[in-house]
């Protein structure tokens, strides 16, 4: 039965799956930059990895913020405990995220191969460090090493333990695998067979490595974290693992047969199933002794989160679809041209007669009267609107005459 | 003292450092897309390749600033848990919604910046212009959400505290039916335009001082300068309003801003000086001005610091110094703005005086100082509370050890970040202009 207190957690897990797939591919692209080696072909690999991710990395990255905010709103006690006990790996991840973002920005100003390779090195090291650190944090939660309370768990043992290290490695390997699959698909779009072949080999290799880590890892977990092991190898947890295995093998087969588009999706399914399996194995506990139900915020907050997420999704998903369609197809179809420029045109014409300047001045005087002299809140609200109106209307009026939407001819 | 309290000051400094790095970037998120779209609109209307070049070069700047904003903003959301887990654990259910919705704004901003940047040359011109509009809107809703949380911390409502847990929570009421929130939002939003405007205009003022002063530089200077020049005087009015709201809802903060030891009728304002032993030393006093400004009556009673016990008072000098810095710089910026507007109205052109451009070059960095001082005023002024009169900052802080290591690392990372951003901007500014102008013209033909 689907309880109200579970719904935000399901949203957070969906967000986590998106982050693991999209953000993971982004991290993995950095991994391949790190291991590209030297020479011209290596530079081509690095360029391709960068170019494919540059337009989407910020959006991919926001999934993490989404997960954080939903969890701290809907499960505040659990969030406080996790963040304080696991502060070190989370801090490492945060620093890694800074370096990655800066590297993206720096690349815009770089010139020459030496600067580029220095930036790429920083970028790719942090691309490996960040998913590893986040993986160890997940491992700490999964192995029950985060008790409830402000920094109540071991500062080091909570994330430097067999399960954490295993999941950290798995996160890096999965990221590399996802990235290679996605970059294969992107390379075929560019008709670059050499690149495609290179990433195909990487995808196959990384897929095998990730699979081996995942299943050898079960042995590690068996020795380290009893509860989660038993629940992963039976019931719903097991179903998640099996689906993940099937989807992972299917992806390998698809990559082998060069069917990259469906491989994108089956790879995503493999990752999502793994996360779902973990969540099911862990339920109903969030942290040891703390059930999801007990961790949940009061009812009104849960409802507010659910409403906010659902209505946000209505705007978000079409926008995301637009971005990915543009990036994946290299262009957007025509249509949707609905910018109404008529009003602005009229405004500009008016400005020539000094009309705008006078209206702006009137707004300023009204604003001073309403905001500064009057004392009721509705007057303050109107005053603020008037003052903003003063700035907005005064702006076109106060621009120097040389700046304006005159046609090209009049200037020459 | 528990270990947690040992690290309280460092945790606060880490938070302050992270804010100080992030907030100037937020200003660019608020105002830059609007300016950029204005330039693109000029291009669409006139077909003048100059505007296209300007818009494309500003796009590159926006991308760099946004990337830095994304990562520094992420650090802030990590710090909510890393530094203040007890705050988040107790009140996440009350204020968290604001950040969740902000997350969506941030998402839209990231998506449409991706589309906008990638879409130059790939989208039909008008559609490309349209993809910029959500960036402007998301910049506004994002700051609205974050500031709704800050407004709540300063004037908490929408919950009841029972055995250390928040019950009867109503997040909508807490965040959006809060009287303390609007002045903060407007003050910050206007600051966004001032900081972005003066920084951008200041950069081109430097170019003018070095002798490059073509139509391109004049245009690129005039647009941000005009918006900042209109926003700066407005900010004086909005700031005055904010002061009255603080007087009403946080009288202790007001007393700290002004260094007012005892509750006084007809209270005076002291400019400059130093607060010690219950009085302002060496300050320039203006009798009755505080009562007049705060309550519009020369003999109104103004609450002093003595209204609350010493352990409930903020550090007066820090708050007072930050406040006076903000007000001082804000006034200077407004004066500079008036000079520009006067020249514009009477001579119908940009000022010619070299001194004006020297002042303008300085105005950019000064506006950032004012911005950070303003946030220091409100945040330090709220101390010792993280949630005003509900939770002390010392109760909120993490019990984790290793804060000093984290602090040191963060300082280093931010130094690198600032250096990196400066380097990118310098590089982008040095890209030769003539080449781009002719390329742009070729693309148009």
Describe the model.
The complex is a heterodimer of chains A (412) and B (445). Chain A is mainly alpha-helical and 412 residues long. Chain A contains 17 helices and two strands. A two-stranded antiparallel sheet of chain A has the order 1-2. In chain A, helix 7 packs antiparallel against helix 8 (193-224). The longest helix of chain A has 32 residues, at 193-224. The radius of gyration of chain A is 27 Å and the shape is globular. The N and C termini of chain A lie far apart (73 Å). The model of chain A is unreliable at 332-341 and 407-412 (pLDDT under 50). Chain B has a two-stranded antiparallel ribbon with strand order 1-2. Chain B is globular, with a radius of gyration of 23 Å. The N and C termini of chain B lie far apart (73 Å). Chains A and B meet through helix 3, helix 4, helix 5, helix 13 and helix 14 of A and helix 2, helix 3, helix 4, helix 5 and helix 7 of B.
Structure summarized in a few sentences:
The complex is a heterodimer of chains A (412) and B (445). Chain A is mainly alpha-helical.
Silhouette of chain A: globular
Using a beta-carbon cutoff below 8 angstroms, give the protein chain pair with the largest interface and the number of residues from each chain: A-B, 110 and 116 residues
What is the number of beta strands of chain A?
Answer: 2
Distance between the termini of chain B: 73 Å
Give me the secondary-structure category of chain B: mainly alpha
- State the oligomer: heterodimer
Radius of gyration of chain B, CA atoms, in whole angstroms: 23 Å
Order of strands, widest sheet of chain A: 1-2
What is the helix tally of chain B? 15
């Amino acid at each position: 039965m689907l309880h109200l207190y579970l719904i935000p957690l399901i949203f957070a897990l969906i967000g986590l799956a998106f982050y693991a797939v999209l953000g993971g591919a982004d991290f993995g692209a950095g991994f391949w930059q790190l291991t590209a080696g030297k020479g011209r072909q290596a530079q081509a690999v690095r360029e391709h990895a960068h170019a494919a991710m540059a337009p989407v990395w910020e959006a991919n990255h926001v999934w993490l913020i989404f997960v954080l905010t939903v969890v701290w709103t809907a499960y505040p006690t659990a969030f406080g405990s996790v963040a304080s006990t696991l502060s070190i790996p989370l801090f490492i991840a945060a620093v890694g995220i800074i370096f990655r973002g800066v590297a993206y920005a720096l690349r815009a100003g770089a010139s020459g191969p030496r600067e580029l390779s220095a930036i790429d090195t920083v970028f790719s090291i942090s691309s490996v460090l960040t998913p590893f650190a986040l993986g160890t944090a997940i491992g700490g939660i999964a192995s029950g090493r985060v008790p409830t309370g402000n920094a109540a768990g071991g500062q080091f043992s909570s994330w430097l333990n067999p399960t954490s290290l295993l999941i950290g490695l798995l996160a890096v390997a999965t990221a590399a695998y996802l990235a290679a699959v996605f970059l294969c698909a992107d390379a075929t779009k560019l008709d670059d067979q050499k690149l495609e072949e290179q990433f195909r080999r990487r995808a196959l290799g990384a897929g095998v490595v990730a699979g081996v880590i995942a299943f050898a890892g079960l042995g590690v977990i068996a020795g380290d974290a009893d509860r989660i092991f038993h629940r992963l190898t039976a019931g719903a947890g097991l179903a998640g693992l099996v689906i993940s295995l099937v989807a992972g093998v299917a992806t390998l087969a698809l990559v082998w047969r060069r069917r990259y588009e469906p491989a994108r999706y089956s790879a995503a399914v493999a990752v999502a199933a793994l996360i779902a399996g973990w969540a099911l194995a862990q339920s109903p506990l969030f942290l040891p002794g703390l059930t999801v139900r007990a961790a949940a915020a009061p009812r009104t907050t849960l409802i507010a989160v659910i409403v906010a997420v659902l209505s946000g999704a209505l705007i978000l998903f079409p926008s995301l679809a637009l971005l990915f369609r543009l990036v994946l197809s290299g262009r957007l179809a025509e249509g949707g041209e609905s910018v109404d420029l008529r009003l602005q045109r009229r405004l500009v014409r008016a400005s020539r007669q000094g009309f705008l300047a006078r209206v702006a001045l009137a707004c300023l005087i009204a604003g001073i009267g309403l905001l500064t002299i009057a004392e009721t809140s509705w007057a303050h609200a109107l005053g603020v609107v008037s003052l903003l109106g003063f700035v907005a209307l005064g702006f076109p009026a106060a621009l120097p005459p040389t700046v304006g939407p005159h046609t090209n001819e009049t200037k020459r | 003292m528990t270990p947690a309290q040992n690290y309280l000051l460092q945790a606060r400094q880490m938070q302050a450092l992270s804010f100080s790095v992030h907030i100037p970037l937020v200003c660019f998120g608020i105002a830059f897309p609007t300016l950029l779209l204005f330039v693109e609109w000029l291009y669409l209307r006139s077909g003048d390749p100059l505007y296209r070049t300007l818009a494309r070069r500003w796009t590159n700047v926006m991308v760099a600033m946004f990337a830095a904003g994304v990562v520094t903003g992420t650090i802030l959301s990590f710090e909510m848990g890393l530094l203040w887990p007890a705050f988040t654990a107790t009140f996440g259910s009350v204020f968290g919604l604001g950040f969740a919705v902000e997350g969506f704004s941030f998402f839209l901003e990231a998506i449409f910046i991706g589309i906008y940047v990638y879409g130059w040359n790939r989208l039909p011109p008008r559609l490309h212009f349209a993809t910029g509009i959500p960036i402007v809107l998301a910049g506004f809703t994002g700051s609205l959400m974050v500031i709704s949380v800050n407004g709540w911390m300063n004037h908490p409502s929408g919950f009841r505290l029972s055995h250390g847990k928040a019950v009867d929570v109503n997040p909508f009421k807490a965040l959006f039916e809060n009287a303390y929130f609007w002045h903060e939002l407007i003050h910050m939003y206007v600051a966004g335009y001032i900081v972005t405007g003066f920084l951008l205009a200041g950069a081109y003022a430097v170019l003018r001082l070095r002798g490059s002063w073509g139509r391109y530089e004049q245009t690129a200077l005039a647009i941000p300068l005009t918006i900042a020049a209109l926003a700066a005087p407005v900010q004086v009015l909005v700031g005055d309003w904010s002061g009255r709201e603080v007087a009403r809802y946080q009288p202790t903060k007001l007393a700290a801003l002004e260094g007012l030891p005892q509750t006084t009728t007809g209270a005076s304002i002291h400019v400059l000086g130093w607060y010690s032993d219950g009085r302002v030393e060496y300050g320039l006093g203006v009798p009755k001005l505080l009562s007049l400004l705060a309550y519009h009556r020369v003999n109104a009673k103004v609450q002093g610091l003595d209204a609350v016990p010493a352990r409930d008072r903020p550090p007066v000098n820090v708050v007072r110094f930050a406040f006076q810095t903000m007000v001082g710089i804000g006034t200077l910026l407004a004066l500079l703005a008036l000079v520009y507007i006067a020249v514009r109205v009477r001579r119908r052109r940009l000022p010619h005086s070299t001194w004006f451009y020297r002042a303008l070059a300085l105005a950019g960095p000064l506006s950032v100082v004012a911005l950070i001082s303003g946030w220091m005023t409100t945040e330090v002024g709220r101390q010792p509370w993280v949630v005003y009169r509900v939770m002390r900052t010392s109760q909120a802080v993490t019990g984790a050890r290793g804060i000093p290591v984290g602090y040191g690392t963060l300082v280093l990372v931010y130094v690198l970040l600032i250096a990196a951003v400066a380097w990118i901007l310098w590089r982008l500014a040095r890209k030769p202009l003539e080449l781009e102008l002719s390329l742009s013209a070729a693309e148009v033909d």
